[in-house]
Write a structure and sequence with these properties.
- 2 copies of one chain form a homodimer.
- Chain A has helices spanning 18-23, 44-53, 73-80, 128-138, 160-168, 210-223, 236-241, 277-286; strands spanning 5-6, 28-32, 35-40, 56-59, 65-69, 93-95, 98-99, 105-107, 110-115, 118-122, 144-146, 151-156, 180-185, 188-193, 202-207, 230-232, 290-297, 308-312, 315-326, 331-339, 348-353, 356-363.
- Chain A is of the alpha+beta class.
- In chain A, the strands form 5 sheets. A 6-stranded mixed β-sheet of chain A has the order 13-14-15-12-4-16, with helices on both faces.
- In chain A, a hairpin with an 8-residue loop joins strand 14 and strand 15.
- The longest helix of chain A is centred in the middle third of the chain and has 14 residues, at 210-223.
- Chain A is globular, with a radius of gyration of 21 Å.
- The two termini of chain A are 29 Å apart.
- At the A-B interface, strand 1, strand 2, strand 3 and helix 4 of A face strand 1, strand 2, strand 3 and helix 4 of B.
- Strand 2 (28-32) of chain A pairs parallel with strand 1 of chain B.
Chain lengths: 369, 369
């Protein structure tokens, strides 16, 4: 597959850590929320095996925060998501699909409640800030919506716990999954959550002071030598195996949260008020005709730039949206939007790439390892 | 300067023309509105000279349309922009800054009025669709907001008129600047505007039918041989020389339209209603302390990933936001946000890059050639 360079510009913003990762062997970028997001160092497969055994530090500053402050902040956050946040607690993270009035997906962020009147929406790749601004202006809500200069460092992998304990002290090991708290490093306070876009365990450090963040970054690599720490990035193989969805890849504004298997994050029973509630009621009543499922394909490589049709005889089974060669399965695995008639596991299909037909089967998400 | 690859994924959507440009010598991409936008073929300088003399076909599908249809569509479009659109005409394009309630920039699209109740907002790189959706839901407006599958081909350069006449007939030469109309090619109707992101003249073809678009694309190259047609892309040298601003590069949500010299697109006199009107009144009353201006720097290359400080002695003169080496000036030229004390033309400054200080001067936009 032919490779192309990325043309840099201020519009694709660098992060505080860009110069570090570029001198640490970065080879490829993607962009995300108008920012550079590292995409490869030694190669996705090598990085996959390393992530599952050791520890990596990821520059995921591109995971931008939409900050909502003010008297009506809880109301605005709830208006945008179908997840019931009425019993949410300060100090906790909530995976919360953001939808529009038609009940279609806009984003799948982590919502962090810092205070009754202060929230961060840790966003996937779409301008949730503009949606929030439009709503706030339209409804004359008393809120301030902004994108503060917060740059996340993720520390991921099974040895992340030992590394973080060594650098930040015993207390960090007591942090529960999807909880956050403040921790001190060299006199600077860091907001840290036990979270991250892998299923290998780890933390996300919300760097609010760039200089202090760089000092912590360097210390993670210094202290991490004994744990075989490496720079890394969200890993396509690991995230597909784990069934972690990617906004813009696996779903977009043409899909609703039921089709994305987000049922447990949808509340249409209680009295909470959010956009798209009526639309979701209708969708639930009618039932969905397609949903995201796993697929396995007899191929040893694949490139995805747009969805690809999956067929059985002459009928469309569904559309493949993300895919990668997974060494564990010795096949390409992927996530596809599959029509109801084909939800039976082990449905076989064909996918045509470069005029060659390849066989595949449907399976559950996450993949059984 | 070290180069990095771009990692492809469905999230960075390909266009109908991606396979064409990749086989025509593309070397680099940028991303724009969650889509691939070509950034280089033979190199910015070679392409600059070619664009100014011949004709280029650009895949600018990334310039997405936000379509607003319905009874309240004119109201919603006007709410988002400080430009007075109350006398706007069907069949015309309007450059219209989009701002938020605080009077800060969100986008600088071309607004196209297709009908009293049908508008396209041809957007720069931010999700105007989400801003419009938030506003529409908040205000319960009777509109449909969507991103239709429209993919723009720009035909730019002095020979674009001859090429378009050859392919589409005499009538296209009668199209006035910033007007649009429908034209027939091989039985397919194409929406074409006399517009484009260069000052070399040309057209933008809003391709609504992918297959027909590819056929037209191929014909433009076939018929264009005698005009030395080449594939191209928005050219950094040409657009900076011409003073064409780039959203996300030259301005962002931290800047207001007065600071961007958009005075003639701001109406605070009439009774039109838009978000940020009160904020702009205050800004006008108080006066601005900085604005975008041109700069020339004694350098033969530069890379921009974030704004760079311009200093005079120990004082900050302003910040450089876009810059490129311009062969005409045998210098780096750029666009910077300059503090009021330094608006006097020919103010000199220093810019430090890699620990080396370089001299520069302030000048007007667009650059005098």
């Amino acid at each position: 597959m032919k490779k192309f360079y990325i043309a840099k510009a201020r519009r694709l913003r660098g992060t505080p850590f860009t110069s570090r990762i570029e001198s640490q062997g970065l080879t490829a970028y993607t962009t995300y929320n108008h920012m550079l997001l590292p995409a490869a160092f030694e190669g996705t497969e090598k990085e996959y095996f390393h992530l599952k055994e050791h520890v990596q530090v990821w520059d995921v500053a591109a995971e931008r925060q939409v900050q909502i402050i003010g008297k009506d902040s809880a109301k605005l956050v709830q208006l945008m998501t179908c997840r019931n946040l009425s019993n949410s607690k300060v100090g906790r993270c909530y995976y919360a699909p953001i939808i529009d009035e038609q009940g279609n997906m806009i984003n799948d962020p982590i919502v962090l409640k810092l205070d009754e009147n202060k929230w961060w929406i840790s966003s996937a790749d779409s301008d949730v800030e503009l949606y929030a601004k439009g709503l706030a202006s339209g409804l004359k809500l008393q809120v301030e919506v902004s994108e503060p200069d917060i740059n996340i460092l993720a520390v991921q992998g099974p040895k992340s716990f030992k590394l973080m304990e060594k650098v930040l002290g015993k207390k960090i090991t007591e942090l529960k999954f999807f909880a956050f708290d403040y921790f001190i490093f060299k006199g600077n306070k860091f907001f840290i959550a036990r979270s991250g876009w892998s299923k290998q365990g780890g933390f996300e450090i919300y760097v609010e002071n760039r200089e202090a963040g760089l000092s912590l970054y360097d210390e993670l690599f210094l202290a991490g030598k004994e744990f075989n720490v490496k720079p890394g990035c969200p890993n396509l193989i690991e995230r597909i195996e784990s069934g972690l969805l990617s906004c813009g890849n696996d779903f977009d504004n043409g899909d609703n949260p039921y089709e994305c298997n987000f049922d447990k994050y949808i509340d249409i029973q209680s009295s909470i008020d959010y956009l798209g509630k009526k639309a979701l009621e209708k969708i639930l009543h009618k039932g969905i005709n397609r949903k995201l499922m796993g697929v396995k394909i007899d191929l040893d490589k694949i490139e995805m730039m747009e969805e690809r049709v999956l067929k059985k005889d002459k009928s469309v089974v569904g559309h493949l949206r993300s895919a990668v060669y997974a060494p564990h399965f010795k096949k390409v695995i992927g996530i596809g939007m599959i029509k109801k008639e084909y939800w039976d596991k082990k449905t076989s299909f064909e996918i045509e790439i470069n005029n060659k037909k390849n066989k595949g089967i449907i399976c559950d998400l996450p993949f059984k390892m």
